[in-house]
Amino acid sequence: MLKILGSILAVSVIALSGYGVISQNFKFMSHLMLLLGALMLVSGLIELQEDRKRSIGYMFIVVSLFIFTVSIMDLL
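Predicted structure:
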């Protein structure tokens, strides 16, 4: 389930960033950051769920919290 959600989020991030680059319209950048934060969170949860002994899963979760903070501050 998480891998499917990660794939959907990855396609959404790529599509929205491609739209921004091609059209030079950056008004959706805060939404892109929210999607990127969600993608990083899902990636971290996948790493932790697969019980890998590396700390990359925790790093993904910390980075996603930072991205959420920045995007919420941008929306306000």
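Summary: Residues 4 and 38 are 13 Å apart (CA to CA).
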